[in-house]
Amino acid sequence: MGKALIIGAGGVAGVVVHKCCQNSEVFTEICIASRTKSKCDALKKQVEEKGTKTKVTTAQVDADSVPQLVELINKEKPDIVINVALPYQDLTIMDACLETKTDYVDTANYEHPDTAKFEYKYQWAYREKFEKAGITALLGSGFDPGVTGVFCAYAQKHYFDEINYIDILDCNGGDHGYPFATNFNPEINIREVSAKGSYIEDGKWVETEPMEIKREYDFEQVGKKDMYLLHHEELESLALNIKGIKRIRFFMTFGQSYLTHLKCLENVGMTSIKPIMYEGREIVPLQFLKAVLPDPASLGPRTVGKTNIGCICIGKKDGKEVHYKVYNCCDHQECYKEVGSQAISYTTGVPAMIGAMMVMTGKWKKPGVYNIEEFDPDPFMDALNKWGLPWHETFDPELVD
Ligand code: NDP
């Protein structure tokens, strides 16, 4: 059918590459391009050794440079660009897609390297330009954001007249055996969890101190875990796109050891994003910390246990109150056996491939810039079952107070 240009060659990109290569009918060709070409070549070797009909090429690119991206896109002529580099590169890649009239998919919203705050306004500002160019940008096609938005759209379409309360619960019951490591890019992960928490109530953001709100929840297939309220990017778009929202919150589980290490690193200044001078050279403490922490892509072989990520929706149908939960459980070791990575990269990479497939096959092709819940959720929900992230639903879930 077509060709995808995959930008980035980290943990998530590895899964996207494997999944596109399993889905050769849609992805007849892929080009993997990243800052470090040797990582792209290593991924190409892995999938070719496993056997695939997809033709795989690689390239070097600095995705902070629009001219380099435009040159690469013009040379490779992909139908779609799958951005699985870092959130810092979202706008340059969108600019290059505009210039070359190429569709765009990402998994995380734009964040400026100097400000640990993510919001959609920078990418939503491209709506008119994408519409005029006749190309589609699908924002946030990972798991959260991503599948969580599709879950909410599915609930809205099939079971509710209005959804008043949404709680998104992200549980990682996996254990990698290290005292401290992050499951995806450490810099992005630590920026996210050390920021203030927030949720939306009655149309307004309510801010909390980091990790101020804690609950315990008994997760299907995982068991009881402590979870903490975090700010998360899909809250912003879901509050606008789902009818009847009164409150929407996001919780993520953390073990005590992770939190103790994080607090200590914060207390000594290692999580700061303000540059400091070190031996005559400017360094950013958090970037230095990233360099000494385990590479998330290396956690695959040692991580055991499961993730459970899903949405609890409370609302009304035909005047009656409905409680609904939809979730996916994913086993770290099963993912490792299939694509050589742990479940966090897997649960992000599979939806990135599916999102690209939705646009490429025309099911979600619509000029403009869209969040994932703005499209028909049904073909995406079917694809989740087919491509490795089967979901479950219940109308009697445990609720969060
Ligand atoms: P990694 O750090 O493992 O990989 C990032 C990749 O991007 C690396 O290969 C890196 O290159 C490359 N890269 C960074 N800067 C540039 C640049 N300027 N030009 C070209 N390539 C560049 O991150 P992950 O794979 O863990 O995460 C990828 C994305 O997925 C992130 O945006 C993250 O926020 C998002 N994510 C989304 C989730 C969701 O559920 N929605 C969950 C988890 C992650 P190099 O190898 O040279 O460093």
From TrEMBL:
Residues 142-388 form the Saccharopine dehydrogenase-like C-terminal domain. It holds the Pfam family Sacchrp_dh_C. Gene3D superfamilies: Dihydrodipicolinate Reductase, domain 2 (3.30.360.10), NAD(P)-binding Rossmann-like Domain (3.40.50.720). Residues 5-138 form the Saccharopine dehydrogenase NADP binding domain. This is Saccharopine dehydrogenase. It comes from [Eubacterium] siraeum.
